[in-house]
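Database export, one record per block. Field names are fixed; values are copied verbatim from the stored entry.
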Amino acid sequence: MGSTVERGEGSGGVEVAYGEGWDLGTRSLWRPLTARAAADRDAAGLPYVAVYRRAGLPLEVRLTSWREHFAGVWAYDEQGRRCRRLDLRLLDGDRLLRHRETRWTYPDGAAPEFDEGCEQRTVTLYPDGRTRDEHVRPGRGIFVTSADVPEEARRLDRPAFGAWPLLSVAPGTPVRTVEPERAPERGAEQDGDPEELWRAPRAGGPACVDELFRAGTRLATGYYPEVTVLAPVERGTLRIPSGRLAIDAPDNFDAGPELVVPVPPGEYVLEEAQVSVGYDCEWSRGWVTRTSTPAVRVRIGEAAVASWEMVLGKDHDPRLLGDGEVYGFGTDGASGCFADAGSWPVLKGLFERALVHGDERAGEHVEDSMYFLRTTDPAAGGGTGADLAAFYTTGDGVWPAWAGRSVEGDLVAVVVVGDHDFTSGVKVLAEPAG
């Protein structure tokens, strides 16, 4: 598919205008740009939008941000409703992966945007050839299968500025560039971002991970209006003679652990975060408080954490993450573990013998702790002396691990927040006194 860009009056067809952003709520350009300024932003990798209109209504809006490896398209129907979304990722040179495409089929012309009566179909393509086809049919459920997409339809070459194909019109449809009447002023009215400004997807990040181990901090979550952080509790040590810290579900059936972090070989302190939470309990008919353990960590060093990063597995590509999405280890048993990756098969085998087969010699069961089971590859028997410490989570699914680093870049701690109520939407109300 192709489009012909023309300047001047009387070319007919579709009009295109450029801006720094697109306000999804008002369906309007934010900070309009000349075509030249938009081309400069394209060359620099900075985000900008191209808005295609017909008869004054938005037809398609494209957001491009090469520095974030992203290009996306929203298509609108004749009623001004979003009906199609295409998510492209720049992964291999100048080749774009058609990562995800969603279509909404409205029941009639009067249905509001994203009405519950819409059929919704999303096809997701991955670089390794895997596919996912999810079809939501109101009243009939969700159907998930794989999609048969030929290789030539999975990717496209990165188009030059102004030469993008349009999804909603026939190839060769003339497109006339509309320039702003004057350069936009960066006044007070334009300094703040619109509430619904369309942005490139942003992966999920740690939600107050460091604060969960800082006694005296007061927090609020989407579930708990009052949370007071207590002093962390030490739960023994973890020996990692191989210098490779594994984070995974202890009942993982794969050959190796999902996540591995290089650490200096040694013995490190295991800790639990402790918080006091308060909430209005309908069963007690009043305000109650209790102690909860939302996170566990391996303390590698004593320096302050200056930054946090998501621990990635060998097949994890952060450029593919959508808004709020994270990578982590998966569990079907509401549990995870820290372990020595070099002794992973032995330690995992001991865990199975202790938990599943009840072999008391294979591991140590721990009471009143999130770390419920420890196993050791005994050095006395020719083993490595390495440890595995299994901990609970509040459910199944994917749990990220966060690596905290000092200003110098040294690893200070590795944390898993294993309570859904503390994984997002956490706000700091007050720092510790002093």
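Remark 1: The mean pLDDT is 91.
Remark 2: The chain has four helices and 30 strands.
End of record.
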